[in-house]
């Protein structure tokens, strides 16, 4: 994966998505803010970007397994990122 997920700042997720209830609206909005700039790489199944990203999200946020996959669905293609999401 060309993105160095180990060096990214996860506070955009950890500051908004908090237990014990993990409100889907706040968790998913924060997840999209974090992940959408990297959507192209995350969705490229020839890389390990998605699994690497989720490993670090769970490491820093101590989230239940599958929280974002279960709560943040917007269709068959997963999350709908805004077309204007800047790539980093």
Automatic annotation (TrEMBL):
Query: Which InterPro entries does this UniProt record tie to the protein?
Result: LLG1-like, LORELEI-like
A Pfam family matched in the record: LLG1
Question: What highest taxon heads this organism's lineage?
Answer: Eukaryota
The protein depicted here goes by the name GPI-anchored protein LLG1-like domain-containing protein
User: Which residues span the membrane?
Assistant: none
**Coiled-coil stretches, from where to where?**
none
Q: Where is the GPI-anchored protein LLG1-like domain?
A: 4-80
